[in-house]
Amino acid sequence: MGTDTSDNISVVIPAYNAAGTIGRALDSVIAQTHPAREILVVDDGSTDRTAQVVSEYGGRVEYLYQDNAGPGAARNAGIRAAHGEWIAFLDADDEWLPHRLALQAELLQRDPHGAPRLESRQIGRLLDLVTQPCERAGLRHDD
User: What is the CATH number of the domain that holds 130?
Assistant: First the structure.
């Protein structure tokens, strides 16, 4: 495993009946200042228009379908399909500020062996330390 994260972060988005929210999630990943190696949406048996919304993104997003097995199974399917050395998870009803992957990549560059020991909530707290002052200053992800 190398330590270069410039093209090694795969984004996995589990989705279930997420047609109303998946577009914003995908837009926030595409708008990252540090691009992801790939974006994978794992549709966990949706019965709404999730597949159609994702298809509007063309080759920028890889779409995987599985019978409904729950979000954990969808995340695991995304991990198995991912080609990146690192995985970043995003829920289909959430979105990222534009520097999220850049901050994650910086943390991984600083300590590639320590970063995997951080739990996602710890990384989230580190990112909150950076993003909360931006939000208080009135900066939004689309600024």
Answer: 3.90.550.10
**Per this entry, what is the length of the chain?**
143
Structure tokens at 77: 């399917």
Structural domain contains residue 17: yes
- CB within 8 A of 8, min separation 6: which ones? 2, 37, 84, 85, 86
Output Rg (C-alpha) for the chain, integer angstroms. 15
Q: What CA–CA distance (Å, rounded) separates 30 from 125?
A: 23
Residue 49 structural domain: 9-136
96: Cα separation from own chain's centroid: 8
- pLDDT tens digit at each of 143 positions of the chain: 444 555 789 999 999 999 999 999 999 999 999 999 999 999 999 999 999 999 999 999 999 999 999 999 999 999 999 999 899 999 999 999 999 999 988 888 887 666 555 555 555 555 555 555 555 555 544 44
Which two tokens mark 86?
A: 């690192």
- Is 142 within the bounds of a domain? no
- Bridge partners for 43 per DSSP: 15, 65
- Determine, yes or no, domain membership for 2: no
